[in-house]
Amino acid sequence: MAHVTDFGWELSTAIVLFHEAIARKLGLNAAEHKALGLIIRNGPMPAGALAPLLGVGASAVTGIVDRLERAGYVTRDVDPADRRRVLVSAAPEKAPDLTGIFERLGHDMWAFMAKYGEQERAVIQDYVTNTIRVVNDQIALLVAEEAKRGAP
Q: From residue 149, how far is each of 18, 62, 143, 144, 146 by CA, in Å?
């Protein structure tokens, strides 16, 4: 039986490559695709608010938002509540339609998950939830270390 870290590595690699493939379909990279998804789901937000969500520094977010804006996926607008701040908004006319991709993924995931009982699915959900938490904690540590070094 493979070690859990082997499974973790294979899973993370598959997920990254899946999102890279989606991003390429949109003319983006994975970080840009993830940023766009956050902007679409969360609504208009300051670019700086993306940094901790993406686990990158402020200068990296600026580059990501610049590329998304050049591609027409987002706009920068003055925040009506604070005219000193700029909000990044998804451009509705350019919103990517990924329905088919995620419908296929959802269908295929449910097809194999149907073989598990309710208790087994609860364990799987617990494992995935805790994996997300651990990975997010590790991202926060890496970002904090990067900030201490003064990296962009």
A: 31, 19, 10, 9, 5
Say if 49 falls within a structural domain. yes
**β-strand 74-79 against 45-46: which pairing, if any?**
unpaired
CATH code for the domain in which residue 76 is found? 1.10.10.10
User: Domain count of the chain?
Assistant: 1
Which residues have C-beta within 8 Å of that of residue 102, sequence separation ≥ 6? Answer: none
Q: Is 10 part of any domain? A: yes
Asked, for residue 39, whether it belongs to a domain, the answer is yes
Q: What is the pTM for the complete model shown?
A: 0.71
Contact 50, 39 (CB under 8 A): yes
Question: What phi and psi, each to the nearest 5 degrees, are found at residue 85?
Answer: -110, 150
**What mean pLDDT, rounded, does the chain reach?**
87
Number of Cβ within 10 Å of residue 32's Cβ equals 21
Closest of 84, 77, 98, 117 to residue 21, by C-alpha: 98
Structure tokens at 117: 């009982």
Q: Is the model's pLDDT at 53 over the cut of 60?
A: yes
Share of residues in the chain with pLDDT > 70 (%): 96
Residue with tokens 């995935």: 128
Q: Name the residue with higher pLDDT: 96 or 107.
A: 107
